[in-house]
Design a protein that fits this description.
8-stranded mixed beta sheet, 6-stranded mixed beta sheet
Length: about 280
């Protein structure tokens, strides 16, 4: 009889020490299995920094000491935490500026609608997908700008910067060639010329004639000038001269020069030519 009592006590003690009691945590679904000797945690917790929106994992503690935990290994993490509202259109991501559009008398037709969404704080990965919801209409304003109709207003979205390379092919002459004539295209009210050669542009490792790239809206002249300003004033990788004629700038690269006219009499033409096009005898405005 005494042996039976001892065996019963041993079984009771073993049950207390080894049999766990489950506890569900209020973090999205994590469950802890607690016994006196150990704790096993099956993680399923919300995490906005995780690409999936939550983290799964397993943790084991023996006598209060952690012997295993793979919580931080299972889920890939977002590299960026402060990603603004963004949408992908035609393979390009556009980011919200937070600014309301100043366009008046616009066309009432939308160019497209946002049809899918990803987690807020993540970047969209396919066309017509955003990280802020669905069913928003948008209009394409220019190559690097769209406007999304949200809460009764059109909000300006700017396209991400894309790497490109401008290539000047000298023809060893002093001929001015027209790339874009003013008002031939709705996007340009000024002329774009090459001087002493031809101009191509490489975008995503594909080379285009500059006229073709501009007319097909693969890039804009504004993006090219914006990069020139960045190279000159921010990165200081090229030389720039600013004229006192209203705002003309000359950007000197190793293989070519860009002259962006901005005069008081309303000349906004662009010239792309060989490096020593800085000589005023070469280009007569």
């Amino acid at each position: 009889m005494k042996k039976k009592v001892i065996l019963f006590i041993v079984i009771i003690v073993a049950l207390i020490l080894l049999v766990p009691i489950p506890f569900k945590l209020k973090d999205g679904g994590t469950i802890e299995f607690k016994a006196l000797l150990y704790t096993i945690t099956k993680y399923h917790k919300l995490d906005i920094e995780s690409e999936a929106g939550f983290q799964d994992g397993l943790g084991i503690k023996i006598l209060g000491m952690e012997v295993y935990n793979n919580l931080n290994e299972n889920e890939p993490r977002n590299e960026k935490r402060d990603i603004p509202d963004a949408v992908m259109i035609d393979g390009r991501i556009y980011y919200s500026t937070g600014e309301k559009s100043t366009i008046t008398g616009r066309c009432g037709n939308m160019d497209g609608y946002i049809s899918s969404t990803t987690q807020k704080g993540s970047l969209p990965t396919k066309d017509d997908e955003s990280n802020f919801g669905t069913d928003f209409g948008y209009q394409k304003i220019k190559t690097n700008e769209i406007e999304v109709f949200m809460n009764g207003d059109f909000i300006v979205f700017k396209g991400e910067e894309r790497p490109f390379e401008l290539i000047f092919n000298s023809t060893n002459d002093l001929e001015t060639r027209t790339i874009i004539k003013a008002h031939d295209n709705n996007n340009y009210s000024y002329n774009i010329f090459s001087y002493g050669g031809n101009v191509t542009i490489k975008i995503d490792n594909v080379e285009y004639d500059l006229r073709t790239a501009l007319l097909e809206e693969k890039i804009t002249m504004e993006e090219i000038i914006e990069k020139a300003n960045k190279d000159a004033f921010e990165d200081k990788t090229i030389k720039v001269d600013s004229l006192n004629d209203g705002g003309t700038n000359k950007y000197y690269y190793n293989d070519y020069t860009i002259i962006k006219r901005h005069t008081l009499d309303g000349n906004f033409d662009v010239y792309i030519g060989f490096p020593d096009m800085m000589d005023p005898d070469y280009v007569r405005f």
